[in-house]
Amino acid sequence: QVQLVESGGGLVQPGGSLRLSCAASGSISSIYSMGWYRQAPGKQRELVAAITYGGSTGYADSVKGRFSISRDNAKNTVWLQMNSLKPEDTAVYYCNVDASTIVAPLYRRGYWGQGTQVTVSS
Length: 122
Description:
Blueprint: E1 2-7, E2 10-12, E3 18-26, E4 28-39, E5 46-51, E6 57-59, E7 67-72, E8 77-82, E9 91-101, E10 104-112, E11 116-120
Parallel strand pairs: 2-11
Antiparallel strand pairs: 1-3, 3-8, 4-5, 4-9, 5-6, 7-8, 9-10, 9-11
């Protein structure tokens, strides 16, 4: 199994910054893509940003130029740097990784973190 531990959420004023982190552990064979999703009350979960093993990135239009995703493959960790935060960024943010395990190295699936609350409010 793969466990994901997220941290870094909290309350921040509009225009402020937060940095989320997500560390993967367990019987990991390989981690492929890593990403961050968010879900606001009454809305569907949406992809915010993703990064491949090689470092290619993609972002939702709503966060381009404000958010930055990065990863450390040796540490199985992904970060989301969020700048110029807006009230509409308020949501629970979830880490997601596409990974395989030691017991089934050819089978890859997605794993989710427990979520961390980000609230942008004055």
